[in-house]
Design goal:
It contains seven helices and 16 strands. The strands form three sheets. The chain has an eight-stranded mixed sheet with strand order 5-4-6-7-1-12-13-16, with helices on both faces. Helix content is about 25%, strand content about 30%. The chain has about 240 residues and is of the alpha/beta class.
Length: about 240
């Protein structure tokens, strides 16, 4: 059962350490499944391009899926896609969850395989799109990233489903907030939506509906240009899942 409207959940979280497994799905991923309206066994498609499709991590997520009672599949692009018809494969799922890593490399590989139009078709069909870190930034116009080295830079070739910039890990990496503020104030990024670790932003279509969190104290904010080279930062109300 597809989501009622095109839905994206962009986050700085989603997984947690397991008690009997390496990983479990946290409240943010569970919220994405809830948003999909899935009945029976939810079907989640994990996309690990940003970390090079690491098979050991895929195995951890498959094990987490068994624990949750979900069907978890993986869209590996290294060394080749798992099916001939990638669009149909994506559309078979309730949720697409994109993992973290290098957003610059992710976007380059996705372009080679024509995945932008595939994910747009899925989004418009009611498949919930979500992800963490690079898996959040990809849905926006761009964002601040360490894809190119330790010094943060701006990536501006995101898929652009959401007409904003993205800032992730705002509370856990001290360089993130000043980099976002500089990029917005200098015109490198448009109005930018940001999350602390453990927080996520829910969009219906391109409208920001609410900020949510899977841990206490996780915040979210919007950074606006003030028209004179500076910025205004507005904290969002965050609902604890």
């Amino acid at each position: 059962m597809p989501a009622e409207q095109p839905t994206i959940l962009a986050t700085s979280g989603g997984f947690r350490a397991g008690r009997r497994t390496s990983l479990e799905f946290g409240d943010l991923v569970r919220f994405a499944v809830e948003l999909s309206g899935a009945t029976g066994r939810p079907r989640l498609l994990h996309v690990g391009t940003a970390n090079g499709d690491q098979r050991f991590f895929n195995a951890h997520l498959s094990e987490a899926g068994q624990l949750a009672g979900w069907d978890v599949a993986h869209l590996n692009l290294f060394t080749m896609p798992p099916v001939d018809d990638v669009a149909s494969f994506v559309l078979e799922h309730d949720v697409v969850w994109v993992g973290g890593g290098s957003v610059a490399n992710l976007l380059a590989v996705w372009r080679v395989h024509g995945l932008g139009p595939v994910f747009r078709r899925a989004w418009e069909a009611g498949v919930v799109l979500g992800g963490v870190s690079a898996g959040a930034i990809c849905w926006y116009e761009g964002g601040v990233t360490d894809s190119f080295g330790p010094e943060l830079r701006v990536v501006r070739d995101g898929l652009g489903f959401l007409p904003y910039g993205s800032g992730v890990h705002l509370d856990s990496e001290p360089a993130r907030r000043p980099a976002v503020r500089a990029a917005v104030g200098g015109g490198e990024l448009p109005v930018t939506h940001c999350t602390d670790d453990g927080a996520g932003l829910l969009y219906r279509g391109v409208e920001l509906v609410e900020a949510v969190a899977e841990r206490d104290g996780a915040g979210a904010c919007v950074v606006w240009p003030d028209g004179s080279g500076g910025v205004v930062e507005e904290a969002l109300d965050v609902r604890r899942l």
